[in-house]
Amino acid sequence: MKRQTRTRLGCSLLCAVAISALAPDARGEVTLDGSLGPRGVVGGGSVNGNPTTYLISDNLGTRAGNNLFHSFGAFNIGTGESATFTGPAGIQNVIGRVTGGTPSSIDGTIRSTIDGANLFLLNPSGVLFGPNAGLDVKGSFHVSTADYLKFSDGQVFYANPASTSVLSVAAPEAFGFLAPTPAGISGNKAYLSVPEGQTLSVVGGELTFQGYPVSTDPSAANFVFYLPGVLSAPGGKVNLASLSSPGEVRLADLDTGGAKLGNISFTDGAKISVIDFTSAGVPLAAGTVVIRGGQILLKDGGLDAYGDPGGVVDIRGNALHLDDYYLYAASFGATDHPGTAFNIQLSDQLLMTHSSLIDSSNYGPGRGGDIRIAAPTLYLGDETLDDRSYTGSALGFFGYISATNTGSGNGGQIAINTQNATLRNGFMLTTATYADGSAGNITLSAADTLQLRDCGVIGSIAVGAGRGGDVNVAAKNVLISSANQGAVMAVDPNFLVTGISAQTGAASSGGTLKVDAGEIQILDGGKITTLLMGSGHGADIDINTGKLTVSGSVNVPGVDYFLSSVDARLAGPDATGTGGNVSIKADTLNVTEAGSIRTALDGAPSPGQAGNVTINAGEINIASRGGISADSFKNQSSGDSGNLTLTTGTLSITGAAGTPRPAGIDFDFTGLSTTTNAGRGGTIKVTASGDVLLSAGGGINADTQGTGSGGAVNIQASNLVVAGQSTVTAATSAAGPAGDITISAGSVWVQQAGTISTQSSGAGRGGSVELHAATVELSDNGKISSTSTGSGNAGNIGITTDQSLVLRDASITTAADQADGGNITITTGNMLKMIDSKITASVGGGPQTTGGNIRIDPDFVVLKNSRIVANAFEGRGGNISIVADTFLADPSSVVDASSALGINGTVDIQAPISDLSGLLSPLNTDFVSAAALLKERCMARIREGKYSSFIVGGRDGLPVAPGNPLPALAQ
Questions:
Q1: Which of 207, 309, 336, 702 gets the highest tally of CB atoms within 10 A of its CB?
Q2: Which residues pair with 301 in a beta bridge?
Q3: Rounded to an integer, what distance in angstroms lies between the CA atom of residue 745 and that of residue 752?
Q4: What mean pLDDT, rounded, does the chain reach?
């Protein structure tokens, strides 16, 4: 069942009367009322083989200066008939009024033989144009149901002969309406056209025009483009104005002076055209279309306004509904002229459905026309896809508003001002360039909410050498969502993405994609994205918001998952340029449920470079496979990764450990990453004024999978917690060296199998770990490590604490299976305490390998069932150096530097106090409890825990109770 449109426009009763009155056999009648000339029936006959022709000569009316006035009792032209106005040269305006009180039915031709004369027809009772109606005039044609015509000198010519009129010699200026509900004007398959450069005006009550029904058969999808227009003014002007109250309509600009606007309906292929071609088919100057109405419905047809230079399409009213209707304008010429400008201002809403479009294109050296739209509410795209969307559409594509450039000039701009806007089900708002000229900019301002739903798109495309346009979006709230799987499947999945985008190819560069909103939600596969496919610079993304949420995905059966994201990518075999950067400022940033923020180089082998990600947020939360990344590792890309720079109050990364990965989603990492192949890995820098918390498998990883050098990780925070199998890593799996990890924090906790590590599994060198904090605690299998399982050496570990380093069931390790081990250096201001833990630097390779050295420099070293080991298998064991004031180790603890088959290392412990047994004097073995000396009745109360006491305190305070330790003396 077809959904009712919001405008509720349709064929009125007047339209039905017109169809009945203009049957093929209808006969006409033209009579004179005698108020401005003779009374009677206008004679007719056959002229040039035509049927009845009503000859209306100048002597049947009254002339005033260059104006010729006629007054008719009836003015009806039957099928195949014509009414011909004649007069001498010099007449500029022929003005006819109809006073009989009945509508004029026109199914023949209105003709004027007076060179250059404009023709005005007024009938306050209505005017009906039939399928055979036509115009053959030498000047402009104005038809109206007005009650009077006002002239530039202020004089008025009334349609009612009972009112006193003045036959002015001035030029007509405005149509005036006195009735509370002006009569309408309708057309049924009529074709009305004026000469080149002239004006065609239809001004009345409700305006209802029907064209030729358009087939909805997809095989005839473009049939609408070849239909003749029902209103045509080549290179001239078409005026449409409807009033539903008394008022005046000025001819020059259709200003209505605040009168209530009436409805306008163009349906069934009813077209408007102001295009002008030479005999060779070359477009000349485009004309102008001005429309003023309340509820305006344009359905199953189109408006053509293109030429060189362009003109203007100016639509103002309450609401405009384009339903399978196009507004098309272009500049074709070889001169430097601007294209047609669209100005649409509405007090209620713009609704575009069923493949409707507003298109301004440029094909020459001139600049494309601008599209400017102002309306409180915009609904762009079908509400559902079960109607005539796409394949069932007469136009054969999803709807769009577009300014396109394929010439050497620049494309036009798109500017939209609204309260609320919704783009849905494949509707696109785009600027594009396919040549040397630049694409125009897009500016969309929504005072309240912008929604992009189910393949709704805002974007700019640069395919040629020209620069892509800037995309600027400002709104209080932005929602980007693609939850409707059917919508995604109905659109080419290789092209479409729900959201805001910029696509750049060839040698062109992208503009800037900027979104400024109070809150932005990107959900269920929605995206803010830029794509570079050439050698230029990809478009940058700049987001400024109070709260940004990037979350979720949509599963398209047989295609793939579309993940919600903010991303700037390079892709394709020619992606040799620099990808766009992503910059985000937010109070709160949430990236969850496989949502991502990223820059990436994921095309064919390419030396291109991924862009950087810079985030400044008060709070950042990453969870459940959400990620922030800058990568260049796919398809053996040789370019560099981008850098990640996060400045925040707090950062929380909560992974999805223990949660099964959804089928079809291969992304199983939560956190921050910069991964490279043959290029340089990007640096991850996190600066947090508060805490950085990693839990449940969350991660901060900088890896290289090829010959490139890995990226570095730099974390500065008030406190850092790495827990629940979470990781901070810098790894290499091939020939490239791993990056380094540097951490500076007030306190660092690594617990519950959390890991801070650098790794080498190839020929590359492992990176180092440098950690500085007031206190560091590792527990519950927490690890800090630098390991090598390939031919590359393990990296070093350096830990500096102002106070203490505590290990409980934890480890600090460097290890190499085939190469040299890394060194471990620990400097603490107070204590190293190890319980059921180990610090090891080991190698397992051949005789040429050397174990890493361990150096520890605290005030106190306390070992309980723990190990400090620097050993080797065939190679040389590492050296262990411990410098401390006090070194305490229980019998189950080990400090060892040995080699199973090679040369042992050395162990050097420098501690003035390493055994307290010789420094403590044992007490007498006969202990006496002070409590035992108390009387039995006091002891009974003490045993029961209930007793009272009376104590007399001296000047030095209360005495110590029996059995309690003595207080230390003040120094």
A1: 702
A2: 325
A3: 19
A4: 84
**370, amino acid identity:** D
The model's pTM: 0.86
* Most confident option among 12-16, 103-107, 216-220, 384-388: 103-107
Is residue 166 within 8 A of residue 108, CB to CB? The reply is no
More confident residue, 268 or 186: 186
The first and second tokens of residue 946, run together, are 């209930």
Please name the helix (run of DSSP H) or strand (run of DSSP E) that holds residue 264, with its range, or none. strand 264-267
Give the C-alpha separation, 347 to 256, whole Å. Answer: 14
* DSSP per residue, 441-504: PEEEEEEEEEEEESS-EEEEEE-SSSPPPPEEEEEEEEEEE---HHHHHHS-TTT--SEEEEEE
Residue 949's pLDDT band, with cuts at 50, 70 and 90, is low
Distance, in Å, from the CA atom of 495 to the CA atom of 726, rounded to the nearest integer, reads: 36
pLDDT at 603: 62
For residue 167, what are its two tokens? 């036959």
Confidence of residue 718 (pLDDT cuts 50, 70, 90): very high
Q: How many Å apart are CA 486 and CA 454, to the nearest integer? A: 8
- Whether residue 547 contacts residue 504, with contact meaning beta carbons closer than 8 Å, is answered with no
Check whether 704 has a pLDDT greater than 70: yes
- The CA-CA-CA angle for residues 166, 168, 172, to 5°, reads 115
**How far apart are alpha carbons 229 and 176 in whole angstroms?**
28
Q: How far out from the chain centre does Cα 74 lie?
A: 59
Alpha carbon distance 736, 714 (integer Å): 19
Q: Measured at the alpha carbon of residue 821, what is the angle toward residues 820 and 826, in degrees to the nearest 5?
A: 150
Amino acid in position 164:
T
Q: What is the largest CA-CA distance in the chain?
A: 149
CA angle 118, 124, 125 (to 5 degrees): 125
Q: Which of 855, 853, 848 shows the shortest CA–CA distance to 873?
A: 848
C-beta atoms surrounding 49 within 10 Å? 5
Residue 507: is it exposed, middle or buried by C-beta count within 10 angstroms (0-12/13-18/19+)? middle
CB 634 within 8 A of CB 599: no
Per-residue pLDDT reduced to its tens digit, 342-392: 999 999 999 999 889 999 888 878 788 899 999 999 999 888 765 455 444
Residue 227: CB atoms within 10 Å:
20
Letter for the amino acid at 514?
A: K
Q: What is the pLDDT of residue 397?
A: 58
CA atoms of 553 and 557, how far apart (whole Å): 13
